[in-house]
Design a protein that fits this description.
2 helices, 100 residues, alpha+beta, globular, five-stranded antiparallel sheet, 5 strands
């Protein structure tokens, strides 16, 4: 399975950025990627395991400088690897929209 990571630097502190991502993932916005998405949040480590019928992903928020860095590592099945660019673009737009 091809893996790739989308990183986003934000001025929000790590707890704020994690809370915003929790709201985004819980809102159903990720359902456009996969309607059977399930999120397992780990508040202590500020991570989330995202499982769908077509992909797996891990969200991680870490302090970085005066803000934080949000990283989403996506594991796509080989058959969906041609859509890697489209998925990266969608995730980048989502991160820019909610953490700008």
């Amino acid at each position: 399975m091809p893996k790739f990571t989308v990183d986003h630097q934000t001025s929000y502190a790590a707890p704020q950025a994690y809370q915003k991502m929790k709201e985004v993932l819980g809102s159903g916005e990720m359902n456009k990627f996969d309607s059977k998405i399930k999120c397992d949040f780990n508040d202590q480590n500020q991570t989330c395991q995202v499982n769908g019928s077509q992909f797996k992903a891990e969200l991680q928020v870490k302090p970085a400088g005066e803000g934080s860095q949000v990283s989403i590592t996506v594991d796509l099945p080989f058959l969906l690897s041609p859509f890697k660019g489209k998925v990266q673009e969608g995730l980048t737009k989502m991160l820019n929209k909610h953490l700008a």
